[in-house]
Amino acid sequence: MQKPLFSYICGLVLVWLTGSCVEPYLPPPIEAPEGLLVIDGYLNSGIGESQIRLSRTQNLADTSVVKAEVSASVFFEGDKGSKYPLTEKGNGLYTLESIQLENSEKYRLKINTSNGQEYESEYVAVKATPPIDSVSWKVENGGLQLYANTHDEQNNTWYYRWRFEETWQYTSAFESTMDFVNRQLVPRSEDIYRCWRTEPSTNIIIGSSTRLTRDVIQEFPLQFLPSDSEKLGIRYSILVRQYALSKESYEYLQKLEKNTENLGTLFDPQPSQLTGNLRCVSDPAEIVIGYFDVLAEQQQRIFIGKEQLPAWAVTTGYEACRNDTVDIESPPRPGEAQIPNGYMFIERRLYIKVFDDMGNIINRPTIGAVISTTNCVDCRTRGTNIKPDFWQ
Amino acid sequence: MNYFNRLVLLLVSLFLFCNAALCQTTNTPLISGDFVDVSFRQFVDEVESKTPYFFYYDSAHTDTLRVTIRVQEKPLNTVLRQLFNGKELYFAIDAQNRVYISKGNVIRTELPIGFFENTEPASTTYDVAALDYLEDKEKSKVQASLANKLYEIGKKTASIQEGRATISGQIRSAESGEPVIGALLFIEQPRIGVATDQLGNYSITLPKGRHELKIKNVGMKDTRRQIMLYADGKLDIELQNEVVALNEVVVQAEKDRNVTSVQMGVERLDIKTIKQVPTVFGEADVLKVVLTLPGVKTVGEGSNGFNVRGGATDQNLILFNEATIYNPSHLFGFFSAFNPDIIKNVELYKSGIPAKYGGRLSSVLEINSRDGDKKKFAGSGGIGLITGRLTLEGPIIKDKTSFIVGARSTYSDWLLKQLQNASFNRGSASFYDVNLHISHEVNKNNNLHFTGYLSRDRFQLGNDTLYGYRNQNATLRWAHIFNNRLSSEFTGGFSRYQYDVSSDKNPVNAYDLSFEVNQSSLKADFSYFLAERHNIDFGVSTLYYKLFPGSYLPKGSESFISPNIVEPEQALESALYVSDEFEVSPKLSVNIGLRYSLFNYLGPKNVAYYPIGIPKEEGNSIDTIAYTRGDFIKTYHGPEYRLSARYALNQSTSLKASYNKMRQYMHMLSNTTAISPTDIWKLSDVHVKPQIGDQVSVGLYKNFFSGAIETSVETYYKTMANFLDYKSGALLILNHHIETDIINAEGKAYGVEVMVKKPAGKLNGWMSYTYSRSLLRANDPVNAEVINQGEYYPSNFDKPHDFTFIGNYKFNRRINVSLNFTYSTGRPITLPLAKYSQGGAQRIYYSDRNQYRIPDYYRADVAMNIEGSHKIKKLAHSSWTISIYNVTGRRNAYSVYFTSERGSIKGYKLSIFGMPIPTVTYNFRF
Description:
The complex is a heterodimer.
Chain A: H1 2-13, E1 22-24, E2 37-44, E3 50-56, E4 73-78, E5 83-85, E6 87-90, E7 93-96, E8 106-112, E9 118-121, E10 124-125, E11 132-140, E12 143-151, E13 159-171, E14 178-181, E15 184-187, E16 194-200, E17 205-208, E18 216-226, E19 235-244, H2 247-260, E20 278-280, E21 289-290, E22 293-295, E23 297-305, E24 324-327, E25 343-355, E26 361-373, H3 374-377
Parallel strand pairs in A: 2-21, 2-22
Antiparallel strand pairs in A: 2-3, 3-7, 4-5, 4-8, 6-7, 8-9, 8-10, 9-20, 11-12, 12-18, 13-16, 13-17, 13-19, 14-15, 19-23, 24-26, 25-26
Chain B: H1 3-25, E1 30-39, H2 40-50, E2 54-56, H3 59-62, E3 66-75, H4 76-84, E4 89-93, E5 98-103, H5 139-148, E6 150-153, E7 164-173, E8 184-187, E9 192-195, E10 201-207, E11 209-216, E12 223-229, E13 233-234, E14 237-239, H6 257-260, E15 266-270, H7 271-276, H8 286-290, E16 296-297, E17 307-308, E18 316-320, E19 323-324, E20 329-330, E21 335-336, E22 343-349, E23 363-369, E24 378-383, E25 387-397, E26 401-410, H9 412-418, H10 422-425, E27 428-443, E28 446-460, E29 466-481, E30 486-503, E31 511-531, E32 534-554, E33 564-565, E34 569-583, E35 588-602, E36 605-609, E37 623-627, E38 632-650, E39 653-664, E40 666-669, E41 680-683, E42 691-704, E43 709-726, E44 742-758, E45 763-777, E46 793-794, E47 801-810, E48 815-824, E49 828-829, E50 832-838, E51 841-846, E52 852-853, E53 857-867, E54 877-885, E55 895-901, E56 904-910, E57 917-925
Parallel strand pairs in B: 2-5, 6-12, 7-13, 7-14, 18-23
Antiparallel strand pairs in B: 1-3, 4-5, 7-10, 8-9, 8-11, 11-12, 15-22, 16-17, 18-19, 20-21, 22-23, 24-25, 24-57, 25-26, 26-27, 27-28, 28-29, 29-30, 30-31, 31-32, 32-33, 32-34, 34-35, 35-38, 36-37, 38-39, 39-42, 40-41, 42-43, 43-44, 44-45, 45-46, 45-47, 47-48, 48-53, 49-52, 50-51, 53-54, 54-57, 55-56
Domain TonB-dependent receptor plug (chain B): 283-360
InterPro entries (chain B): Beta-barrel_TonB_sf, CarboxyPept-like_regulatory, Plug_dom, Plug_dom_sf, TonB-dep_rcpt-like
Organism (chain B): Rhodocytophaga aerolata
């Protein structure tokens, strides 16, 4: 609601202007105190593995990979005495196999780090997630808008979070069925023309039905794809995961979203310091980042084919691809024909060679190879050519 | 024969008669001496040293004159007659032995007592029958003769009695009959002066006897009246507008109000000045000009609201003809909601706030509209790139009743539709405002004024949410003069501000959200001239508030929205005040004021109570009491002291000091950096205490070149208690227990404001520099959240250095050019301290609040006004304004923000007017 307000104002003002209102900004270097512990993950109360990832914060200008917190002892603890230790999988990841939780029990996360600090969360109750009624879509505002629909008969859920995974099929710019290896044409063993790419959602998507008389979510906007999106080139699929949240968890995410996403308007909220439900037991002054939750997942997948959509011109990202023909029959030195580095063979082509390499007119039919860059030929540079199990 | 010569003849004969009369009654000093070829100056020095005579003359007229004369015990008039014989020099001598030398024209000092048969005091009949010939020709000469005429005030007595008497009356414009506000009346010996009030009335107490009363006002020709004061009486004066200075000597006297008045921390702007300042969309904008004054800041350009001396935006009382305006802007703050054609002047009080005003902590911005022309119909208007406006005015009953009506609207809607970009042309934005002002003169002692005001904004984004807000005001004022000493004004008013947000895109979630403030007020203000050294103002006021803090209702039958209505609030805010402006000595004047305000929070309302000493949380309320209609739920009251003093160090220098205490019972809740159109207002209640502000201010004022240049240095220190801050991520609208989201904070602000102003002349304008700080602290142990470890931190509008230059140069009578330059430190922001990865995306962790700053701000604007020809008789006068806003095209940062995009953190700088913006506006008058 605020984003369009801003762009609208810009638009109004930019009636005369050509420049943009927003430009990148590099903040002055700020040296943060030492890395704070970041806790990311939840206890899965449904079916499936629980994951907790431990890491440290970095300075804004730091471009190195995230520093993982290793060799910590991590476990879930119930308020009725149950205890589930997690297994360290390396790189700061700690996991627990699917377990059956007691709905009446509350759970918390406890961590002992290798530097001797002890952390714990508040106790969190188990909350069931109602199933997704449907994932729907509409063609509007010059693109495809995807929605989530759900409800809770018991009027008990009220706060929801969604994540999604998008998968789409695409093809590279040029289909190559043969390969040119050691000056020999050989059939390609692998299809490198048709691929799939999967991307998870990164934004916080939360919704609430508290303003309604019933616990119903209708057409909650999840994702908007502009009409020229590469994702809509052939076939698109989205897997939507839904989680029921507690009120506290919802409010935490809402603040996190306000702090880090919906910014750049005329009426920005003041960024706030965010406190989750975790604390350092051994040093109460230490700040711990993250929120521990007990969540159950519901999911639904839909497919949308190109034929279901208007005839949109898609920007594939391969627009800049060009092919070229090289002579493979009469190379400068016989027997040395090859394809330049970084290029791939597309097909053979017969053409009339007008000049020889000395510049004499020859007008001789010649066999050439049509080639293009690997990025334009091999779709695996952007995704995978292994068809996902769920693909239909 | 031309009238002028006839007049001179007449005056000369009068003069002779006068002198004859004078000689009989006064003991004339005699002159003796032997002057041989001395300069006139030496002659004057000699005479002045030996006799009580004092000469007034222009040395340019007399520098060629050599005096060779031998006299023995001769009266001065005989000597001078002999001396000036055959030269074009004239002289006059008045009762106080002052000698006036003039060239080509005679100065008349006095008319004989009893010259007129007419016994009515202060009659406006022209003094000489000959003047009737002049009738409507050459009005300025009539004025000149009016200035020379002797007015007898009060019942004539044979001789002047001891003591003082009071003259009162009204000063009006000779052209339109409108009262002239703030005109200065004074006599020089002894130095006594007053200014006219809001209705152009004045009252001045002078020693009985003969005086020359001078009257000055900006934009009007200076004039004077010769008066013979016998007893209390009345004198109305008409001033002529200063259209164009023709062949006439303009006597530039000290317009030195800034030095002589007790009032400090006040800025006055007339509409002429406001119109000269370049603005972004070419239309004169009151609030944008107010922003250029020292001590006034804003969070960012194009943002709604302003901050005065470290106060929040809701701490400004904005009065449009005495009616409170809650949202003074159009289109998110790009335009102010006041039509420049209606406005007469603007006054901003930053300190030394008169006891008459109260209810806000930081400032009072008084915007006064003009009265309509009482004599003829006229109109004016303008066409700009975004807005158009039209104003009509004229008499309803000639010389008695007049109206002025103005309307303004935008065609931005139409512009948007022309855009090819789909995301804009589906939106819409429009606003308009309408003003109506009627003034009626019942009789000399009773005047009625009615003002109606409506402003409306609507904007829609895409096909989705529709926003709208509206200000509605009506006031009726009755000004009544009881007698020469006591005048009064009774005002009844009503203000309403409301906004609504609605969406019907998704039928299930279609809603209507609305908010409304209603305010009805009654007040009576009296002004009593106790003695010439005491001027007492007193009055009483009461305000009734009714707030609908938010209602969220389903729209359409398919909507599942559950109605959510926050209980209405009501309260009564009353005040009593008295202040005395007391001239202790010619050097020292003080204004001692006391205002006592009383606030009652009224039922019906359900009020939750919380345990004392621990943070208020939604879950921990211990009791809820249901109050019924008429219950007094909570009462706050307290004194507000208003003291100011002026000490004149010399004629052109003075030192002033003031102390103010203010109480505020109405607060705006906003946790965005700039005012957003969906911010709400809240009354003080059981949990939200009134904000209390204290300010001490000291200033030094000095005028140079007889007031041609005014300079001032003011410093202030201010504290604010019960300042409102909010918990992180607090939701303010539709919150049934807002007290649980409010944090009690306190503020302090201090600064120095330096200003150099050249109010008139070919080159005019001002230059100001401000150093100021505005700091907040939230360290109440009962707060649920501690901000910045309970230490002071800079507020959002803490911009320590601020420099402004506003200049205007008149090349000739048709072309003038304005230049505006402004620099300020960037406003504070909160920057991220660290980044981390969560849920597959990078997030940021913020540092302490407001510890960093966005880049410094600077901007230069130019404008050129081109007037049409200056023929007085033509169909319409027109002018063009061409302006370029942000000439250098600097991309000033409005904000800097960091956002998580596709999983990684990106920093952006947002600028609003990142390019030079040229505009053309056509203005006309008929």
